[in-house]
Design brief:
about 400 residues, Alpha-Beta Plaits, 2 domains, nine-stranded antiparallel sheet, five-stranded antiparallel sheet, about 25% helix, globular, binds flavin-adenine dinucleotide
């Protein structure tokens, strides 16, 4: 593993590289083999100094080092009275790694984390430092880039004045009523996540509402008959809620409410695998019903399913490219063969509905099945060949999923 400390060290590494011999790495939180290589991993950990975060004079953007974790970046911004629009469920991931895979939080009007990127700076496969800004022709291809174009060293992100969020968890929602009123339910606040174990296939275990105190009204007394939980919850009912961010309507800073998990705790359920399919909003209800039909077979393999809505964007390889999307997420037990035996059954139902697999989570579809899901698929492949003509960043994952 190499841990370059500045752009010159990154350039030196890439200039000496052979085809397939280097691969950028963030905080290694992906479940797919997207960051694997038989060559040298280039860690972003040396490009993660919080003192390198520079806020623009107009306080509308900040230049951040690629390897900084969202949790640390959030603390720096919060100390300056600023905020990011959204965060993923955990604050432990690096900015470059999260953006590269299209990582998202929730909210009908919130795009994925990559939509906050204004500019991306990377050392491409020829050793050149490339800067692409929003509005540049190739920019929309270069943000969710799967580490295929180069090693990102810094990004400019949109920031905004800090805000407070209050979180309320509702328990036991009737699934059919929820599907009939899906837009209303997912629009009751800034960010809404639904969690269910399918133990009772007709009931969704929890709805997590994150309200912006400066914009949203009061939390409703009930949602589709479900009442607020009087106790703090973990997304998996019954698991100790100590790692969860504060709930019960108590307002707090954005960085302590937008993620589901606290930075100081090991995230989620510990030993696990994850898969997620981002389904166009137009077919999402059909997709959720298709998953419910598999409930009996899913249950033994599953810690929990999370459903979230993500606003459309124009990024070529984003799961929400060109459409509002609903993420159907599965936190599995750590049994890779059993999960991989289940995935064909999920994919044969979901892919025909336009579902795009999360690049950082476990999925099976290959380039042939993925290409029709992304209108700019071939444009991305051409962009990758322009910036990495010798394929120094190409690994087995990129060969299988993008035919690079
Ligand atoms: C507990 C848990 C919860 C999660 N919750 C969410 C969630 O809420 N929403 C969601 O969408 N996803 C979620 N994920 C998935 C996770 O956000 C993604 O897998 C994300 O990519 C991980 O970031 P990372 O820094 O660990 O990247 P890595 O896994 O290290 O790398 C991912 C990709 O980014 C590339 N990359 C990394 N650094 C660079 C760089 N400097 N330059 C160029 N390319 C780079 C790598 O080559 C690789 O292709 C979760 C994962 C875990 C473990």
């Amino acid at each position: 593993m190499a841990t370059p400390r500045d752009v010159d060290e990154v350039r030196a590494l890439v200039r000496d590289a052979r085809p397939g011999s280097v691969r950028p790495l963030g905080t290694r939180h992906s479940f797919s083999p997207i960051a694997d290589t038989r060559g040298t991993l280039v860690s972003s950990a040396g490009l993660a100094d919080p003192s390198d975060v520079v806020v623009a004079p107009d306080r509308a953007s900040a230049r951040v080092p690629a390897g900084i974790r969202y949790g640390e970046l959030a603390r720096v911004l919060h100390a300056k009275g600023l905020a990011l629009a959204n965060l993923a469920s955990l604050p432990h991931i690096s900015v470059a790694g999260a953006v590269a895979t299209g990582t998202h939080g929730s909210g009908v009007r919130n795009g994925s984390l990559a939509t906050a990127v204004r500019a991306v700076e990377f050392v491409d496969g020829t050793g050149e430092l490339v800067v692409l800004r929003r509005g540049d022709a190739a920019f929309d291809g270069a943000v969710v880039a799967l580490g295929a174009l180069g090693i990102v060293v810094a990004l400019d992100l949109d920031v905004e004045p800090g805000f407070e969020v209050a979180q309320t968890v509702y328990r036991d929602l009737p699934l059919d009523a929820l599907l009939d009123a899906f837009d209303e339910a997912t629009s009751i606040g800034y960010s809404v996540s639904l969690f269910t174990t399918w133990r009772e296939p007709d009931v969704v275990d929890q709805l997590w509402l994150k309200r912006r105190v400066d914009r949203d009204g009061e939390a409703p007394a009930s949602v589709l008959g479900a009442r607020p939980s009087p106790i703090e919850m973990h997304p998996i009912a019954g698991v100790d809620a100590a790692s969860s961010t504060p709930q019960r309507g108590v307002a707090g800073p954005w960085l302590e409410r937008l993620p589901h998990f606290r930075l100081e705790f090991t995230p989620s359920a510990g030993e696990e695998l994850q898969s997620e399919y981002l389904v166009p909003r137009a077919t999402a209800i059909e997709a959720i019903r298709a998953v419910r039909e598999l409930a009996l077979d899913l249950r033994p393999l599953l810690h929990v399913t999370e459903l979230r809505e993500i606003a459309a964007d124009g990024l070529w390889l984003s799961g929400a490219s060109g459409t509002n999307a609903v993420g159907l997420h599965f936190t599995w037990v750590a049994d890779q063969p059993a999960v991989e035996a289940m995935l064909p059954r999920l994919e044969e139902r979901l892919l025909p509905l336009g579902a795009r697999p999360h690049w950082g989570k476990v999925f099976l579809a290959d380039a042939e099945r993925l290409a029709p899901l992304y209108p700019r698929f071939d444009d991305f492949r051409a962009l990758a060949r322009t910036h990495d003509p010798d394929g120094v960043f190409v690994n087995d994952f990129l060969r299988a999923k993008l035919a690079l």
